[in-house]
Structures
1.
Amino acid sequence: QVQLAESGGGLVQAGGSLRLSCAASGRTFTNYAMGWFRQAPGKEREFVAGVSWNGVNTYHADSVKGRFTISRDNAKNTVYLQMNSLKPEDTAVYYCAAEFFPRETGISELPGSYDYWGQGTQVTVSS
């Protein structure tokens, strides 16, 4: 089992920044690719960004490219999502997820590919 705990959400004005963190415990962190997803009310969960086990490969959804950056610190078993230039349409519950994918550099956008999920953290962007 992998336990994931997100933090860093909150209320911010449009144009502002937030940094989300996701702390992992329970299994070898470097065996997992990590992803961030979000879900707004009445919408399906959507991929935001992913990072390979070693942090070398990253992938961001077009909707956040150039504004959000995913990274990981394997020494701290933590993955981050730096969110800049936030927009009201970024308002959602943000989830981190872990996919068992040791020593592979691919990144999946599909929620079904991920094995473990956190409880989520709310991000609200006011206009």
Note: The chain has a mean pLDDT of 96.
2.
Amino acid sequence: QVQLVESGGGLVQAGGSLRLSCAASGSFFSIKAMGWYRQPPGKQRELVAFITSGGTTNYADSVKGRFTISRDNAKNTVYLQMNNLKPEDTAVYYCKEEVLGSWGQGTQVTVSS
């Protein structure tokens, strides 16, 4: 089982930036696809961004051009750089290891208008 710990959330004004980190324990991180998801208040969890073991990325249309997912295999960490944040980006953000389906505990991102 993989343990995932997210960090970097917080309160930011619209137009601001945050960088989320997800540190993974366990072996073989470099060959695992990783995803960032979010769950806005009262809504279902949705995929935000995805990165394969080879570095190929995919994004939800709502965040394209604003968010960037990346990974540092030497640190067993995946990042989500979020720029030009909007109030509708407010949510709990989770990372997920896509092979075994392990989730982190989530980190709150709140964007004020």
Note: The chain has no helices and eleven strands.
3.
Amino acid sequence: QVQLVESGGGLVQPGGSLRLSCAASGSIFRIDFMGWYRQAPGKQRELVAVLTSGGTTNYADSVRGRFTASRDNAKNTVHLQMNSLHPEDTAVYYCYVHQLGRGYWGQGTQVTVSS
């Protein structure tokens, strides 16, 4: 089993920034990819950013240029730097790890963008 612990959510004004972090622990052998998803009220969970073990990072069109995902393979952590936040970025953000054919989710952290 892989456990994921997220941190860094909160309330921020439009145009502000937040940094999310996720630490993976447990039975870690080789993580194929790590990433972030989000789910807004009444909407489906959607991809925000995914980082492969090969160093490729893919972003949703809605966040490209504003969000930056990074990964520390040695520490099994992944971060999401979110700049120029919009009210529509309000959602619960989930860390995701894929390893040996299985996916693991964090508990989620709330991000609220509001004045």
Note: The first strand starts at residue 2 and ends at 7.
